[in-house]
Write a structure and sequence with these properties.
Elements: H1 18-71, H2 74-102, H3 114-122, H4 127-140, H5 146-157, H6 160-163, E1 166-167, E2 175-176, H7 181-194, H8 197-209, H9 211-216
Parallel strand pairs: 1-2
C-alpha cells in the first residue's frame, strides 16, 4: 500500500518582493552592459589590427622607396639641382638684359603698361642699379613740397594708366607697390631730401588712390576705355 504524500500549498504566501525584482533587473542590465562592452572590445581589437597592418604596409613602401633611391644613378639625383641652376642662370641673364636696357636708371618715358613697369622693377635687383636710381631720383625732381615731389617722382616712372592698377598694399587684386625696389629707392631719396619716411608713405598712398580719378578727368578719355 503506497503511502499518502500530502502537499500543502499556502495560497496566502507572499509574492516576490519589489526589492528582489529590482535586484534582478539590475543584474540583467549589468549583464547586458557587460556583453556590449565585450562586443565593443572585440570591434576595437579588429580596428586596431587593421590599423597596425596599414602602418606596416606604409613602412614597407617607404623602405622600398628608400632602397630604390639608393640604387638610383648619381646623375639621376643631380638632374633637379642642375635644372635649378639652369633656371637661376636664366633669371640672371634676364636681369642682365633689363639692366642693360635701362642702365640702372629711370625710363625715358613713364611706363604705360604694367608688365613693362614690372620688367623695369626686375632690373633694380642688383645693388649698383638700385643705388644709381636713388641718386637719379634725388636730382630728377626739384619740387619744393613733399606732395609735389612724390607725385613728380612717380610720374617719372609710370603713368596714371599703370598707377590705377597699383596700390600700396595690393588690395582688390591690384599690384602691391609697398615692397618694390623702385618704392624703396624712392623712399630713400625722399628721406634724404625731406627726412620724414612716414610722410612718403602717406603721399604715395594718396598718389595711387587718385590715379583713377586723374585718368577719368583727362581730356578726350572715353568712359568705356576705363576699366
Amino acid at each position: 500500500m503506497e503511502p499518502n504524500i500530502a502537499i500543502n500549498i499556502n495560497v496566502n504566501a507572499n509574492p516576490v518582493s519589489t526589492e528582489t525584482l529590482d535586484f534582478q533587473r539590475i543584474v540583467e542590465e549589468l549583464r547586458r552592459e557587460f556583453n556590449e562592452m565585450k562586443a565593443d572590445r572585440g570591434r576595437e581589437r579588429v580596428e586596431m589590427d587593421a590599423l597596425r597592418q596599414e602602418v606596416a604596409e606604409l613602412k614597407s613602401r617607404v623602405s622600398a622607396l628608400e632602397a630604390a633611391r639608393e640604387r638610383e644613378p648619381e646623375e639621376g639625383r643631380e638632374r633637379p639641382a642642375m635644372a635649378a641652376r639652369d633656371r637661376e642662370a636664366e633669371e640672371d641673364g634676364e636681369r642682365a638684359v633689363e639692366e642693360a636696357r635701362f642702365g640702372g636708371s629711370l625710363p625715358d618715358r613713364p611706363f604705360t603698361d604694367l608688365n613693362d613697369f614690372l620688367q623695369f622693377e626686375s632690373s633694380l635687383e642688383t645693388d649698383d642699379a638700385f643705388q644709381n636710381v636713388i641718386r637719379t631720383l634725388g636730382t630728377a625732381s626739384t619740387a619744393p613740397s613733399s606732395k609735389e615731389w612724390v607725385a613728380n617722382s612717380w610720374h617719372l616712372v609710370l603713368s596714371d594708366d599703370v598707377g590705377r592698377l597699383c596700390s600700396w598694399t595690393g588690395i582688390r587684386e591690384k599690384q602691391c607697390i609697398r615692397d618694390l625696389r623702385i618704392t624703396l629707392a624712392m623712399r630713400s631719396a625722399f628721406v634724404r631730401k625731406f627726412g620724414r619716411e612716414e610722410e612718403f608713405v602717406e603721399k604715395t598712398q594718396l598718389f595711387y588712390r587718385g590715379a583713377q580719378d586723374r585718368v577719368k578727368k583727362r581730356p578726350n578719355t572715353l568712359q568705356g576705355e576705363i576699366k
